[in-house]
Amino acid sequence: MNKASDFKAWMQAHLDRVEDALSQWVDAQAPAELGQAMRYAVLDGGKRLRPLLVLAAAEAVGAPTDNQAALRAACALELIHAYSLVHDDMPCMDNDVLRRGKPTVHVQFGQAQALLAGDALQALAFEFLTPPITEVPAAVQAACVGLLARASGYFGMAGGQAIDLASVGHRLDEAQLRQMHRLKTGALLLCGVQMGATCGPAQSHETSAALSRFGEVLGLAFQVVDDILDVTTDSATLGKTAGKDAAADKPTYVALMGLAPAQRLADQLAQEAEQALLDSGLPAERLMPLRALATMVVQRTH
Amino acid sequence: MNKASDFKAWMQAHLDRVEDALSQWVDAQAPAELGQAMRYAVLDGGKRLRPLLVLAAAEAVGAPTDNQAALRAACALELIHAYSLVHDDMPCMDNDVLRRGKPTVHVQFGQAQALLAGDALQALAFEFLTPPITEVPAAVQAACVGLLARASGYFGMAGGQAIDLASVGHRLDEAQLRQMHRLKTGALLLCGVQMGATCGPAQSHETSAALSRFGEVLGLAFQVVDDILDVTTDSATLGKTAGKDAAADKPTYVALMGLAPAQRLADQLAQEAEQALLDSGLPAERLMPLRALATMVVQRTH
Known about the structure:
Two copies of one chain form a homodimer.
Chain A: H1 3-25, H2 34-42, H3 49-60, H4 68-88, E1 98-99, E2 102-103, H5 105-109, H6 111-128, H7 138-152, H8 157-167, H9 174-198, H10 205-232, H11 235-238, H12 244-247, H13 253-257, H14 259-279, H15 284-299
């Protein structure tokens, strides 16, 4: 076995856990097709980067593989991501008709149902985090809710989306662009690392800070690569409409700095992420999944 | 002093606490006008029935008047209510332009910002419930989040809205109508009573069950009275468009059973609410605010 095959096995096992849990916990029986719209938005698509990050971070700090709190946090984070895509795709936002190679939720179920499905997915994320306290300790529940709510909210993802809305057609400088992406995309990725670490044994301040730094850098790298892929990859490979940001005159790293410098920035961020993992002081074998996920983020082709 | 003036003083003091907290806790500085859209949706309007219910239930079970957990739960519940109004009013839902006598959020700020403001208000509700655990115990935080998430979600408010969407132009029977309203409106009112009770000392099973029954009956009464007011009151008094349900051929208690029987049902529910309070076994003086709020719900004119 080499490291690549170790990670492949780790990823497949954890993807299966996440898919099984999502399929079991997002109930099709909810009233009037709402459950079906929600399942359509969540199941059978997506790379599941965010839930994998939660699980990898939990294992990095020494949580057992079958930790229920981490699985719940992983799935909750994916629901927040899924709801944001449903709402983002709506006609009053990005007006996108294709997502993960399928018609978007509002195309399939109508705008009103898409709006409700997104709202209900957000609520369901917080249901996932609050099972009976015999299953997850109240302190872990409260900590994860606090992290996820703040990462999703007006000083997190939603705030980043508001900056994005206001910035179309404006020239942002790199600091402004970083701030937008730190909130819009980065906050949830950072939250994933932090929730995962919260589900395991308590860590030193140095370890927690290093993991948070890893989450921040990874979030930024993710967005830089996203911007690169938007101009270098076709819609079929991406599973969503390519070239959309450029067509909408949205600010991107590529638009700001050019393609080659954006690629160099992505490489530099990958090195910073690696350094943060080293700084955590955690055992190398437990860091393997986090390290491999960071590599995957930077080297992905869709 | 008579009971009416006692309640008037109680209500004014608690309304002031809620308004102060909302104004302080919904931050105008959030990026790109998002905070302003959220404040526009939440502040300076509304009867604050839901937060008052939380505070009244907390005091009924013996929580001190200045209980921070109850104030946070009260404001969180109001944010959920406010976000649901913002999204309900959007063109793809009810397409309403007037709310509490002001232009609706999407008229004032645009649809995209209204969508985001609603999303961010939901997240902020869960931020309110998760302060540092030195302020509210983790067990209370987890319990309130669990109650609020379930009351808001696909087997709560959002599920009721989905039934509402699917039911336009269909003739529901009374059981179906009750189910819709139990979820759409009732779930949040019941949740208010339950969160309030969670913030005080632990209660017997009988007391908790009686308070939940009070919350359920009150929720139903609220909706019956809403349907009555929709046909008996003008838009200026309501602060929103009157006659809208009838015009949209939406199922209502008045459409189903006629105006006079709907009014008799409201009276009967008021008696059931009173009985539930008696069954709680809680001291009469502590029940005063809950009792007066129930009377207010049934006798309100807007």
